[in-house]
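[Discussion] Sanity-checking designs against the backbone

I'm trying to build intuition for which residues belong where. Below is a C-alpha cell string of 186 positions. I'd appreciate it if someone posts a full sequence so I can compare it with mine line by line.
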C-alpha cells in the first residue's frame, strides 16, 4: 500500500512538474521566434556592413589597378624615329623628322611630324605599320598632321613603320615611294 501511496504522490508531483515545465516552455516557445529573428537581424546587419566595407576596398583596389595599368602602359610605349630612305634624293626631306609613339598592347600610336614638306596636290602621305607576319603593310591612315592612330592587332610588340607618298585619299597597299621607314624590332 505504501508503494501505491508513494506512486500516487509521485504522480501528483509529476503532474505539477509537467504543468510547471509546460508553463515555462510556453513562455520560452512564445519568445523563441523573436529571439531567433533578433539574432538573424544582427547577422544580416553584420553581413551588410562587411559587404559595404568590401565594396569600398574593391573601389580602392580598382583605382590602384587602373593607375598601375596606366603607368605600365607608359613603360611599354615604344618611341621610334623614322629615318629618310637613301632612295629619297629630294633635299627637302633632309630636315624632316617623323616620330611614332607605339603602345603594343592597345595597338595604338601617335605620329608626330616636323618639317615635312607639303605633298604635291595629287598625293598624300600615308603611314604604314610593318608586321612581319602580315602579307602586306597595314595602313594607319593619312598623315595630315600630328595625330593618334589605331590599327588592328599585329603579331609583334615592335612593328616597323613607314611613310609613303600615295594618291590623294590613300591606298590599301603602298604604291608610291617609301620616304621614311624603320624596320620591325625583335
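Best answer:
Here's mine. Compare freely.
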Amino acid at each position: 500500500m505504501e508503494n501505491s501511496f508513494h506512486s500516487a504522490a509521485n504522480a501528483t508531483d509529476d503532474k505539477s512538474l509537467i504543468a510547471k515545465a509546460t508553463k515555462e516552455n510556453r513562455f520560452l516557445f512564445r519568445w523563441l521566434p523573436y529571439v531567433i529573428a533578433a539574432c538573424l537581424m544582427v547577422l544580416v546587419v553584420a553581413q551588410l556592413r562587411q559587404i559595404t566595407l568590401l565594396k569600398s576596398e574593391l573601389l580602392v583596389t580598382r583605382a590602384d589597378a587602373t593607375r598601375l595599368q596606366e603607368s605600365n602602359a607608359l613603360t611599354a610605349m615604344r618611341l621610334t624615329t623614322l629615318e629618310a630612305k637613301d632612295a629619297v634624293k629630294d633635299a627637302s626631306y633632309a630636315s624632316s623628322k617623323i616620330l611614332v609613339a607605339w603602345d603594343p598592347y592597345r595597338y595604338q600610336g601617335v605620329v608626330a611630324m616636323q618639317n615635312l614638306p607639303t605633298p604635291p596636290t595629287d598625293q598624300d602621305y600615308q603611314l604604314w605599320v610593318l608586321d612581319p607576319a602580315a602579307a602586306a603593310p597595314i595602313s594607319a591612315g593619312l598623315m595630315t598632321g600630328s595625330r593618334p592612330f589605331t590599327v588592328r592587332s599585329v603579331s609583334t610588340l615592335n612593328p616597323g613603320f613607314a611613310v609613303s607618298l600615295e594618291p590623294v585619299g590613300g591606298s590599301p597597299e603602298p604604291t608610291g615611294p617609301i620616304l621614311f621607314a624603320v624596320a620591325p624590332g625583335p
